[in-house]
Amino acid sequence: MLAIHQVKNSFSDRWIPYCEANGIPFKTVNCYANDIVAQLQGCDALLWHHHQGNPKDIVFAKPLLFALEQAGMKVFPNFNSNWHFDDKVGQKYLFEKAGIEAAEAFVFYTKKEALDWISKASFPKVFKLRGGAGSSNVKLAPDAATAVKLVNKAFGIGFSQYQAMDNLKERLRKYRKGKTDAKDVLKGVIRLAAPPAYAKVSGKEMGYIYFQEFIPGNDHDIRVVVIGDKAYAIKRMVRENDFRASGGGDILYAKELFDDSLIGLSFGINEKLKTQCLALDFVFDKGRPLVVEISFGFSMAGYDPCPGYWTKDLQWHQGSFNPYGWMVEDVLKSIAT
Ligand SMILES: Nc1ncnc2c1ncn2[C@@H]1O[C@H](COP(=O)(O)OP(=O)(O)O)[C@@H](O)[C@H]1O
Ligand SMILES: [Mg+2]
User: CATH code at 296?
Assistant: First the structure.
């Protein structure tokens, strides 16, 4: 019996119909309830697509899932898939130790070390908060003076997870392109005065600073998603006059856009990391793929138009497919072994 935490617009929208259609026994549970462990009585696994923008999830989703896993229960996402989710600082160390070719990241925990580094570094660099999605907390630091300002803030008043002005500008950009409505823009205006709950709950980002080597000349990034022995990919174009693709909404899907070697590399990385679901964001340094970020979770609509997928032997399988069903099947397999 599977337990599924049901949330609208999360993987559970697809997990539940998949289980129903395939006669897979499941029940829905409420992870927010104090008696969640009791609710899980008789279940072999818990699936919960928790979210970085949910104020409750960020408080305890990881600890709950890790606790269950340590006590012997199968979970999705499991520890290897989940601990680094929405944590680019953690990912820096993982990429370095696991020998994963990534855009080099520099993290400092004192102002002095950060300023020393800036005095010797070349610019531009990319500044990131450890958390955030859709490029919301990713910025270019064009010169040392900007980097110093960022350092002063990181070791001063800190950063909000939610950059209200940037967010409003992004909503306006999407509105002008016909990709969102006036209501969404109005929401952005209201958010200037009332930040979202998750930003309040997570508090200020401070006490560390993260820069990454800027990889120039990319008019897109490529995201490859590996789930078990299958993978699919999307190509995301950068915003106009910007270097950032993620969250921009301009996505291409044709199979020809993706080199087999990149798909093979992605399978190889997941062999090292042993995750259940790994979305890899790649930029290219003169053609050489470098990881900038990994994630177990993503918003589903961006992938639905994918025309097919690859298996580990790099064979292409044309036609629609259900990666959320793969997740369920992989969890069932893990229960059986
Ligand atoms: N080091 C880098 N060099 C060049 N472009 C980058 C770099 N890091 C990120 N980007 C671009 O910025 C976008 C957002 O960065 P990412 O780290 O993936 O943050 P997010 O979590 O918001 O998706 C990426 O989709 C990519 O287009
Ligand atoms: Mg990204």
Answer: 3.30.470.20
